[in-house]
Design a protein that fits this description.
With 252 residues, this protein is mostly helical. 68% of the residues lie in helices and 7% in strands. The protein is built from 10 helices and 3 strands. A 3-stranded antiparallel β-sheet has the order 1-2-3. β2 (55-60) and β3 (67-72) form a beta hairpin.
Length: 252
């Protein structure tokens, strides 16, 4: 009974680590590898894991009856600091620095912790990045400030719409629509020169770059289901952004 209880706790720790990593934007193969290494460090070598962007299935064989657990993933974001911290905990487990009870405690605290930057810091970073992207795409310095303003407004709106509208991709569509509108008014009132450069720079913070990268890496690692689903999500997000810009330009 004691051995089975320990197996249950190991599975719980592995699933919690995988859940934190997947919710924070980690690649599928990295999640599976981390779970496998953690279980092996605790003396359970015969494990199987199946990870998709919406769920994790983890199974243990060879110790008493077979045990299988499922964790559903509902929300996903980007927090690479949490991914790095889970990797650090996994390495400490593998080296024997911490035990099972301490690992479970650290992972539980990490799951509840909010390590992301404040909203206003993210807003400022999105605005500055928008202006820099405009310059990178050969825009003029006269378009730098309009791009910062449009990009900041667009990022604020995408966060706001995500909170009030549960429909996925709708927030990206609406925020890109308003980005196009704000950019047009800047040009109309003589506060900018090139409409296309302002729009391109302003929508860049909305582009799912990490999602596209993870989709390609998962496909290269042989995780076809996760790679295709992440690629489809990235494609739909890009389509929503493009549709919002196309919609506003059609009215101008």
């Amino acid at each position: 009974m004691e051995n089975q209880d320990q197996t249950f706790e190991v599975m719980r720790a592995c699933l919690l680590a995988g859940k934190i990593m997947l919710q924070s934007g980690a690649e599928t193969y990295r999640v599976e590898d981390t779970m496998s290494r953690m279980a092996s460090a605790f003396g359970i070598s015969n494990t199987h894991s199946y990870v998709t962007p919406t769920g994790i299935i983890f199974s243990v064989e060879g110790i008493g009856p077979e045990r299988t657990k499922l964790v559903r993933i509902l929300d996903r974001t980007t927090d690479l600091r949490k991914v790095a911290m889970v990797n650090s905990i996994s390495r400490k487990i593998s080296s024997g620095e911490i035990g099972l009870v301490e690992a479970c405690g650290l992972l539980a605290e990490l799951e509840k912790a909010n390590l992301s930057y404040s909203f206003y810091t993210q807003l400022a970073a999105a605005a500055i990045a928008s202006g820099c992207f405009t310059i990178m795409f050969n825009g003029s310095w006269l378009d730098f400030l309009p791009s910062m303003a449009a990009g900041g407004i667009g990022y604020f709106l995408v966060v706001y719409f995500h909170r009030i509208v549960p429909v996925k991709f709708f927030a990206e569509f609406l925020s890109s629509f308003f980005i196009g509108m704000v950019s047009f008014f800047f040009i109309k009132f003589g506060l900018g020169q090139e409409l296309d450069k302002i729009i391109i720079g302003s929508v860049m913070p909305l582009v799912p770059g990490l999602l596209i990268t993870n989709a390609v890496r998962d496909l290269m690692a042989g995780h076809l289901v996760s790679g295709l689903s992440k690629g489809a999500e990235a494609l739909l997000t890009a389509f929503a952004i493009g549709s919002g810009i196309a919609a506003i330009l059609s009215f101008l």
